[in-house]
Amino acid sequence: MRVLIASEAARPGRDNEDFAAAAPGLGVLIDGAGAPAGLESGCSHSVSWYARTLGGLLLAEAIETKLSLADALAASIERVNALHSGTCDLRHPGSPSATVVAARVVGDRLEHLVLSDSVLVLDRTGADPVVISDDRLAEVNRKLDDPDERPLLGTSEHAAGLLSRVQKHAAYRNRPGGFWVAGTKPEAAEQALTGSTPLDELQAVALLSDGASRLADRFGLMTWPDLLAVLDKSGPAELIARTREAEASDPDGARWPRGKASDDATAVYWALTD
Question: Which residues form the PPM-type phosphatase domain (predicted)?
Fold first, then answer.
């Protein structure tokens, strides 16, 4: 098996709030939920601290125990809580949170877990790819957004709208009828999308933060088979480079309205066959 990983912050000099790692038979990707300017948090730790701490603990839990991926995630959230419950207000709605994607080989199958809006792509032998992403956050955003108001990136109106939307997320985060993320509630792990696929049906699997899936699912510049072909032939760094080129061609979001001009981008490409 061959695993390639690339990760890049949204812009130079900024913390990368993504985390990715692999071990024999296991891949993990965490995408920390970046906070817009003006959003309060009850935590003294950064989003990047949360992402890499949760990711490292999940990697260990999924390797060293026989827990399901969902139970391993729940245990990891509990362990992160224990690390900062004495210094931070874990009840605060602005506490750091993250999306999670994990894939693990168990016997002759590949198990997966997807929580929130990062993406898992299963490259199937002789068939179309299967794309797995939790769209509950997108459904909430559709409820909150006014489609007739799309301020350009970099304007005060855009910044104010983004802050307002994220503040409104608190009424929907980790609640039935809303959306679920890894944060301070271990029970959120029970809401993850999980499943398994026979290994002999797969050529590869890709784990993508939403900053690395944009060319296919937001910009429409690639199909999923196109994206997998780039990963296979040129690797994750090339996918991120092409994403940056597209973002730079639309700096104010006039063509592709979005919350951030560029986002942290992380891709894990795991080839399961020689």
Answer: 24-218
Residues 225-272: tens digit of each pLDDT: 999 999 999 999 999 999 999 999 999 999 999 988 999 999 999 999
Whether this model's pTM surpasses 0.90: yes
In whole angstroms, what is the distance from residue 274 CA to residue 271 CA? 7
CB 228 within 8 A of CB 123: yes
Is residue 29 within 8 A of residue 209, CB to CB? The reply is yes
pLDDT in tens, 101-158: 999 999 999 999 999 999 999 999 999 999 999 999 989 988 887 555 578 898 998 8
Question: Are 189 and 77 spatial neighbours (Cβ–Cβ below 8 Å)?
Answer: yes
Which residues partner with 193 through β-bridges?
114
Domains and their CATH numbers in the chain: 2-271 (3.60.40.10)
* C-alpha to C-alpha distance for 197 and 250, rounded to whole angstroms: 38
Q: Are 270 and 206 in contact (CB under 8 A)?
A: yes
Which residues lie below 8 Å from residue 230, measured CB to CB, with a gap of 6+? 222, 238, 239, 242
Whether the CB-CB separation of 121 and 127 falls below 8 Å is answered with no
DSSP bridge pairs for 18:
31
Dihedral in degrees, nearest 10, Cα atoms 67, 73, 240, 129: 50
Closest CA to 158 of 253, 90, 237: 253
